[in-house]
Amino acid sequence: RNGIYPLMNFAVSRPHALPRVLSQPPEDPQKAKTPTPEPFDVETRKVVQMQCSMELNEDRTQWHLTLLLVLEDRLHRQLSYDLLPSDNSKDLATELVHYGFIHEDDCEKLAAFLESTFHKHRS
């Protein structure tokens, strides 16, 4: 008779009204100007397999990097990036650690892997 959700037949009681506060003190303007940046998660899983491909864009002026990482728990993480002429492998690997994409112990290994890929395609 009441269907599969019998608790929905009861009337919902209205919440009691809360007393209103006249005004709140203004915040310190110094605190409002300098927000704390949100911390990034730290990757705890290590990389067990890496694959990398580089292709020239249609206008053939910039390289596009696609990186496939397989982590310890078999999670696949695919990242892509348009390389700038000033980019180097060490900085890219350090950025991936900073933003929580790879474990910090994998930074040197990934930097060496990217360096070998850069030499193969840019030469």
UniProtKB/TrEMBL annotation:
Chain segments carrying region Disordered: 18-43
Protein's recorded name: NRBP2 protein
Superkingdom in the source lineage: Eukaryota
